[in-house]
């Protein structure tokens, strides 16, 4: 007697597997009914991270089977690191906690600067809403209009903490290009730093995303109160086409590669993730819902009204970008750490 399974047995087994798969899928589809999903935001209310997160929270539920409630929870701290750490090892891993993860925290972890207790490659990445650039801009009374001005005089700029781009980006510009920006820490967010400019406490700011500036303070750019001098990222933001990229001032290829390594993070400026270990079926549901929400005409219309850029990427694409960011030679990591003041 042959030990090979009959075609009928094979078909029966396949049917059982398909049935089990459909049952598991149905269970996942039903999971979110009546549930509440929390989006942990790495900043205070009112800034760019908060604005993007609240836009997503408004439209994501209708694209999730079961239409759960979504609440936004602001959790500032450590330049975004608090949310990254909470999401990585503290919150429930059942698919009800999403984190707005800053790309600066991802790079810090990769470079072994801070966040050694997280591995960016282990998050379950949901997707990214937009790429961006980081603008260094200066108050109209500061006398700063070019990078040469920044090299010739000390200028006070505001920052929140050492984990944020408002600290790491100007530090790297100082170290690589020889500018003289002095960073005053302790400001909560963009709104706080704008008020500090108006009060004359500081003279400029880096660590302000181009999309956030144009969404929240376009009048300051339009009337010349804020003068953009540099933008850090891989490609110029459409609203700042004539503002030079920081790496364009590199004196050699090594400097350019170093700055590009640091600023590549701007390609994933508005990312969201689940904790490591979140069930894969729930990850897939929210990944699909995320892309559907970003293609929703009503969300797109609201983004246009709010002057928010959208350039969505899937969770798989975000994971690939982060893996490429992590694939940096040790000698370049060492130089990047030094450029960032570490």
Alpha-carbon Rg, integer: 22 Å
CATH superfamily of the largest domain: Bordetella uptake gene, domain 1
Tell me the number of strands. 11
Structural class, from helix and strand content? alpha/beta
Question: What does this molecule look like?
Answer:
The protein is of the alpha/beta class and 342 residues long. It folds into two domains: 162 residues, D-Maltodextrin-Binding Protein, domain 2, CATH 3.40.190.150; 132 residues, Periplasmic binding protein-like II (D-Maltodextrin-Binding Protein, domain 2, 3-Layer(aba) Sandwich), CATH 3.40.190.10. Helix content is 45%, strand content 17%. The chain has a six-stranded mixed sheet, with helices on both faces. Strands 8-5-9 form a three-stranded antiparallel sheet. The protein starts with 6 loop residues before the first helix and ends with a helix.
In short:
This protein has two domains: 28-130 and 270-328, 3-Layer(aba) Sandwich (D-Maltodextrin-Binding Protein, domain 2), CATH 3.40.190; 134-265, D-Maltodextrin-Binding Protein, domain 2 (3-Layer(aba) Sandwich). The protein is α/β, with parallel strands linked by helices and 342 residues long. 45% of the residues lie in helices and 17% in strands.
